Structures are given as C-alpha cells and as structure tokens.
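Lab notebook, bench 4. Still working through the backlog of constructs that have no structural model yet. Next entry is a single chain of 319 residues. Request: give me the structure tokens for it.
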Amino acid sequence: PKCPRLLSLLFPIRKGITEISNSFFVHMQSLRVLDLSGSEKLKRLPDSISNLKSLRGLFLNGCRNLEYVPSLAELKELRELFLQQSGVRAVPEGLEGLVNLKCLDLFFVQDIKCIPTGLLPNLSHLQCLRLDDCINVDIPTGELVSLRQLEMLGVNFSDLHKFNSYVNSQHWQRLSHYRLQCRIFNSKQSLRCREVTISNYGRGELDQDHDIALPTNMQELSIFSCILPTSLLDFSPSLNNNACKDLERFKIFYCKRIKQLWSFTATTSWPVPQNLQILMLQNLPDLTRLFKYEEEEEEEGPPPPPPRESGTFSLLKQL
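Model written out:
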C-alpha cells in the first residue's frame, strides 16, 4: 500500500498471520505508531521496518513465535519498544543508538539470555524498563543505577547478593513503580505499585549468611517456597513497623520453619506494619502464632506485661 501520510497502523489481532511482505512498509515513511501485538504466528518482521525513520512506537506484545526483528539503528525517533511475551531471543540490533527511547518493555521474554553490557547506560532517557520474569537475564547494579530518569522498573535477580546490591544502592527511591524479583517469575503483567517478590531463600549454602535488604517504601511483599528463620525479623530486619510504613499487602506461601511472624519484647518497638491491609498465609506447616512476646530478664520484681499497641491491624481487610 502507498500511504505516505499514514501516522498510525494498528493491526487487528491476527493470530493466523505468519509473514508480512518486505514491500508492505516501503511507502509509509511518515508512520509513527506500528502495533502488531497479538500476531502469535508471526515469525519475522520485514527489513523495510528499518527505514521507518519517523517511528516513535513499536508494539510487538504477544508475538510468541517472533524470531527476527531487523536492525532498529535508524529509528532515531523511537520512544517506545514493547516486546512483552514475545519470542525474540536477543535484543534487537541497533538499540544502543536509540538515545530518545523512553520505554523498553521485555516483560516475560523467556528466551533472551542477556542484555549486552553497556546497552542500558546508553539509553539515558529511559523512564520505563521491564525485565521482570526474564529469568535468564542479570543486569549489573551499576547499569541500573546509571538510569537517572527511570520511573518504572521491573527486574529479576538470580541470587541474593545481586538483589541486596541493588536494594542497598537506594536507586529504588527515585522510582514511582517497581517490581524487584529474586529467583522467581510470576507472570503478573501489570506494574501498578512498588512490590518485591522473593523465592527459594534458604535453599542455597550462602543464603543463611545474608540478611535480605528490602526497600522501605514497598507496598507489596510476597515470599514463596523459602526455608525461613523462626521469625520474620531474623529473615530481614527491614520487616518492622518503622522500616515498612507503606507495606499494604503481605503474602507468605509454601515456606518452612517459620514459627511466628513477629517477635518483640517490652523494650522493643511494636514491629507490625501499621498500614497492612492484606495478610495472606498459605501452606506454612511450622507456623504456630502471629506474634511472640519474649520476656527480658529482670533483676527484681515480676516481669512487665506485654506491650499493647493501639491500631494494630486496624486497616486489615483480608486475612
């Protein structure tokens, strides 16, 4: 088709389409938005896409069999590249030169093995980076921290050391939304809040030597399939009221050894996050109580009564 003034081309979801002719985009030099999302059988993009120099948005979400994307080096105006749940096996060539790119979405792209070293620092205008559920990709903390304009981040860390390294960098404080994962993918497509997901803690030899550092402004925390200490504060000192004032949703599933969630004494501050709205506990065979009051040794007289904190669970909606 000859459409030299066409600005947007939104393909209807065509699950049966397998290829697009190379000449299809030759006469669409003004095209700014191209959406091929949902073309599940599409395996190759035509090379003529490389010449769409006015393109600002390229959407390829759900193209599960997509194997080939031509070089994007000439698409200097590109602002958004969406490859969610696509079949690409490598980052498209030429990405390092797209200095105007603001959104790179590779959520749940399972076949990508790595992000080329040095790529992310070149994309200094990125505001949204989705690498969550990319279980084979590890990004050095230094490259994430270099993204000063980033507002939304989804990322999966392969081990606890890398996870802690990023959290300790404090880079997350500049983000409005994030999903930080350690050894897990959960296929939650939307990124609506500040959330952390931990899996398989305690099953490696080195795990027991490290406390988990957690962002203090997280709104949701999920812990799955872990071997935990007897109390949450032994798992992470960050899990107390003062450090987790924003925590609203807390889920612990399929974890062993934990006996109580919070323990405290007469002289320690009340540990329960006061803004908690949802507490979900499932398949915790060793859990016996939510709280444990530990008496401190006194020189004389009877022990003081356990402290009572007004407002505990006052916002809780689901248990």
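Notes after review: Residues 27 and 260 are 66 Å apart (CA to CA). The helical segments are 119-122, 141-145, 160-168, 232-235. Flag for follow-up if needed.
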